[in-house]
Design brief:
This protein is 28% helix and 23% strand. The chain has 298 residues and is α/β, with parallel strands linked by helices. The protein has one domain: Metallo-dependent phosphatases (Purple Acid Phosphatase, chain A, domain 2). α6 links the parallel β7 and β8 (190-194). The chain binds fe (ii) ion.
């Protein structure tokens, strides 16, 4: 009996040892390198998604220091930077800490729309006052040193969604924006699509974007690294395909951030630390246009 009890207690202790460390949720930096042949110089991008107005230390110092340590050339905000429940203060503090020091671009996420008309307007006003550039179906040419990049941004589909949900048949709206930014992108330069939703990669890959940057999935909330890359994600359901990481479809590369949401979620993250994503675009010295286009046609 004593032996049985000892085994049971040992098993329980082992289980706790496996479960508890999973809840460690300190900020981490996730790095990716993307081959971008033909770039005059490397370009470092900080991708920040799904902050949901969460707190990262006094005055957002933890997140600001992490960004500064990486010295990015530009910061891209991939939606749900604000939340519909949490006050906007933490996000505003973070924005005020980076604007003027880095070029900052933003696209909307679903939670900005879920904030209602007044809430949405307030959030957009904060962005405008801070000097953040919102890309709402627009493409901008960004210059980093001598390197030009075409940066395309689309709104979250919730900008048009109605009670019938978002379907491929939805007229105008999102699909129009997608086609519009693809057409606006400057020819002959590396092209990035900044979007909140990762689950629409199939549609993104129909255009000539070289790199898609997305968020929204929160890493699938619970993970078992190496075994299960995410348990559940909005718009993807159980065992999501695009929960976080590197994906490729028809020659289009997509990087999905696991985001920075922490105290805003009703279930804690598990083996899924909130992340600041750093994407390094590196030249391999060859002309990228022909390579990428050929790859896409395969
Ligand atoms: Fe989202």
């Amino acid at each position: 009996m004593k032996r049985k009890k000892r085994i049971l207690l040992s098993l329980l202790a082992l289980l706790l040892l496996l479960i508890l460390p999973g809840f460690y949720n300190a900020l981490t930096v996730q790095r990716y390198t993307v081959e971008a042949p033909g770039l005059a110089q490397p370009v470092r991008i900080a991708l920040i998604t799904d902050l949901h107005s969460c707190a990262y230390g006094e005055g957002q110092r933890e997140l600001l220091d992490a960004v500064d340590a990486e010295a990015p050339d530009l910061i891209l905000l991939g939606g749900d930077i604000f939340d519909d429940d949490m006050p906007d203060d933490n996000t505003e503090t973070f924005l005020r800490g980076v604007v003027g020091r880095y070029p900052v671009y933003y696209v909307t996420g679903n939670h900005e729309y879920w904030s209602g008309e007044a809430g949405f307007t307030r959030k957009m006003t904060i962005l405008e006052q801070c000097g953040v550039t919102r890309l709402s179906g627009e493409a901008a040419t960004v210059e980093v040193g001598g390197t030009r990049i075409s940066l395309c941004g689309v709104d979250d589909p919730h900008a048009w969604e109605n009670s019938n949900g978002f379907t491929e048949q939805t007229e105008g709206g999102f699909w129009k924006q997608l086609a519009q930014v693809a057409a606006q992108a400057e020819d002959g330069v590396f092209t990035i699509l900044l979007t909140h939703r990762p689950d629409l990669l199939e549609y993104y890959s129909r255009y000539d974007f070289d790199l898609v940057l997305a968020g929204h999935a929160h890493g699938g909330l619970w993970r078992i690294p190496g075994v299960m890359n995410g348990l559940f994600a909005p718009n993807q359901g159980w065992f999501p395909k695009y929960a976080g990481g590197w994906y490729e479809l028809n020659g289009t590369v997509m990087i999905v951030s696991r985001g920075l949401a922490r105290e805003s979620t009703w279930l804690p993250r598990w083996y899924n630390r909130p992340e600041l994503v750093i994407v390094e675009l590196q030249s391999s010295g060859t002309q990228w246009t022909s390579i990428m286009r050929e790859k896409k046609q395969q």
